[in-house]
Amino acid sequence: MLTRRRLLTPKHTSALLRAFSSSAPYPKTPSLADITPNGAAAFDARQKEFRDSVRAAQQAKEQQDSQLVNTSTPVSSSASASASASSFTNAVPAQETNDASIASDIASKLSLGSLSTHSAEQARESTSQHETSKRKGALSSLIYGTKEGQQMDQDIEKSFSQVLARGKYVHSIVFHQVKPDKVDEYIKLVGDWYPRMASLEENHVHLVGSWRTEVGDCDNFVHIWEYQRYHGYHASLHSIASHPEFLAFDTHLKKLITHKETSLMQEFSFWPTTPPRKLGGLFELRSYTLHPGNLLEWETHWRKGLKARREVMEGVGAWFVQVGDLNTVHHLWQFADLEERKARRELSWGVEGWGDTVHKTVPLIQKMRSRVLIPMPWSPVA
After folding, report:
1. pTM score > 0.90 for this model?
2. By the 8 A CB rule, do 211 and 222 touch?
3. Cα 3 to Cα 13: distance, rounded to the nearest angstrom
4. Which of 47, 272, 287, 332 is the most buried if burial means most Cβ atoms within 10 Å?
5. Angstrom distance (rounded) from CA 234 to CA 193
6. Are 204 and 228 in contact (CB under 8 A)?
């Protein structure tokens, strides 16, 4: 996962990252009307350029790692074992940790994630492994009997293990219901504050994106943030609340909104959150409330179904709520326009495996909703 977080290099990021500004004017609220009709070809071209850049950066990262390993001197077996226990140095000998640290610092400025690791990380990983072994026995009795059931049982056990291992990043999704006559004032306030807080290194937080709801609960704004585990979430809140201008911002914000809702989430391992990019178009946030106890089965089926979907649609990320609106899963997609969304979704049915995913996941759902979102001018993912 860290590889995905660090894979963007300066050579490939100039077109992908949006510069932050503390004084950029937003004279007009973004809306669906701002999106050029029949823009699918341009969207596809930007999408291809983004994917090619990511692929090239990934190859450069792998080559750099290979060179570090090849040029390193042998270390003792005990030192090697110690190095392998660390998520940031599992392939780098002791004398190379300085270079790796520098590379990590650079990477953290270029893509989501890559935040500094807490000293207790190794203990947390050990705890996760212990928790996994304790739960396997209970999971093995969920599905049994047929050959297909036994195979699904194995998949779910693997899935549960992966859920526990996905503790490195915590995401928050924040919904603001804004007073209709205060929307422009809200955009000006938040458009200044959020980018500034995300750009301050001491806050240890990344803004994934900010959007306004075009279809759904209108005058509602959605923000997704990324933190380094739960201790990172707590530390970030403390750092931001200690900023000398926070009280004025918070007091002003409370006058503009009627409701605020926050949930803490983790991303599915099979669907890592995209790095910053600018493809244009619109977004769709699909939210599913599952029957309690069905998250593991949902993940097992969607891990297979996403392979089919990715052939025709551009995913941004997928998260499951751990604190807040429980039993909820959020999927975020990006399209050139609404007509292209319709066409892409219809194409999915022609891809092998998608029909089976729908058939097996629909019974797991209690409630579902869809929102069409428009990215805000400061959103890193737009």
Report:
1. no
2. yes
3. 16
4. 332
5. 19
6. yes
